[in-house]
Design brief:
Blueprint: E1 47-48, E2 58-62, E3 67-74, E4 77-82, H1 93-100, E5 106-114, H2 124-130, E6 144-153, E7 156-157, H3 163-173, E8 181-183, H4 191-200, E9 205-210, E10 223-227, E11 230-241, E12 249-258, E13 261-268, H5 274-284, E14 303-305, E15 311-316, E16 318-319, E17 325-326, E18 329-333
Parallel strand pairs: 1-10, 6-8
Antiparallel strand pairs: 2-9, 3-4, 3-5, 5-6, 6-7, 9-10, 11-12, 11-14, 11-15, 12-13, 15-18, 16-17
Length: about 350
């Protein structure tokens, strides 16, 4: 008996997949009972806003602090893609196994991979450690998927279905699931009270979504994010060497993007442990640069400049009048495959 053909991998040579615009159906042709399953869908991204929208047209969810991923399930074959389109299936074995047990033939689930701390809150640093740090090769068995959208379900592309309809199918799919794939619950109530409660519990913020919106790729305003504490990605351009600090790193020097150039935005000297500092020092010493990659007029001494290749996730409270980060704290390094966007200065 001839062997059935093996499913083709979604990725070749670890290059990120790119989604393609769907062609409208030809009205002269009969309507097919099933929709072709997309190899990849560019994610819908939330637009940052200073205030939470209120009213019956909005749905609220907690903003989770982790890695955005899409889980593709097709007849028992699972692929887990990062926001940048890279295949990380092998790095999330628990999520892969949970997807195979969902009891559906095909689905594309959108969500956030996180690691929860002892109090049940997502911890980005713990997620990074479970993956072996930036460039690490570890498989994160501790990660779970908090699923918040369903794009393809049982042979049907449902991206044009309003959010409330997609949530209905997602909730039915994940009913009673408490393993490595869990539903990101809708939070009912006044949006302002929800945001206040999220901040009191040490969470990153709230996502507001238009209930009647289809799933549209890009940052178009259907989803809005309101943060309790600012957190963005910055490029590391050097470090201040200190004999008394852990692993010799007194602070990291950071830059944001301004057009085609980098602009210095201050430093961060808290948030990393002895172990993290040691790992950082090893990476930084391999990319030293004789020339500073940014214009610098500060008073710091013993600065070691590095090539602008490492992207750090930084939590901060505000900006100073001269364009520097206030009360900055290091959270971890972003992966290139995570498609992290470096903060852009207007």
């Amino acid at each position: 008996m001839a062997k059935s053909p093996r499913p083709k991998p979604l990725l070749a040579d670890d290059k990120p997949l790119r989604s393609r615009a769907r062609k409208p159906r030809d009205p002269s042709q009969p309507k097919l009972p099933l929709d072709p399953m997309p190899a990849r869908v560019e994610p819908c991204l939330a637009l940052l806003k200073p205030r939470l929208p209120v009213g019956p047209d909005w749905l609220y969810e907690i903003k989770w602090d982790g890695y955005r991923i899409a889980v593709h399930l097709n007849n028992g074959n699972v692929r887990i893609l990062t926001r940048g389109g890279h295949d990380w299936t092998h790095r999330f074995p628990a999520i892969e196994d949970a997807a195979k047990r969902l009891g559906v033939g095909s689905a594309i689930i959108d969500g956030e991979a996180v690691v929860l701390d002892e109090e049940g809150r997502p911890n980005f640093g713990m997620l990074q450690q479970s993956l072996g740090g930036r460039g690490g090769k570890l498989n994160s068995g501790a990660s779970i998927l908090l699923a918040f959208d369903l794009l393809y379900f049982d042979g049907h592309d449902i991206r044009e279905t309003p959010l409330t309809g997609r949530r209905f199918f997602l909730e039915s799919l994940l009913k009673n699931e408490q393993g490595a794939i869990r539903l990101s619950e809708e939070v009912e109530g006044d949006g302002r009270s929800i945001l206040s409660a999220a901040c009191e519990h040490g969470l990153e913020g709230v996502i507001a979504k238009r209930k009647d919106s289809p799933y549209r790729s890009g940052r178009l305003g259907d989803w809005l994010k309101i943060k309790c504490v600012q957190s963005d990605s910055f490029i590391v351009v050097g470090y201040e060497h200190s004999l008394s600090a852990r692993s010799g790193i007194g602070s990291l020097l950071l830059a944001a993007r301004k057009g085609a150039d980098w602009v210095y935005v201050g430093s961060v000297g808290t948030g990393f442990s002895e172990r993290t500092a040691e790992q950082l020092r090893k990476m930084l010493d391999t990319i030293k640069s004789k020339k500073p990659p940014v214009a610098y007029a500060g008073q710091r001494k013993n600065i070691v400049w590095v090539q602008p290749t490492l992207i750090a996730e930084i939590e901060y409270r505000a900006w100073t009048n001269d364009g520097k980060l206030r009360h900055a704290s290091y959270k971890g390094l972003r992966e290139i495959q995570d498609n992290a966007a470096v903060y852009e200065v207007e």
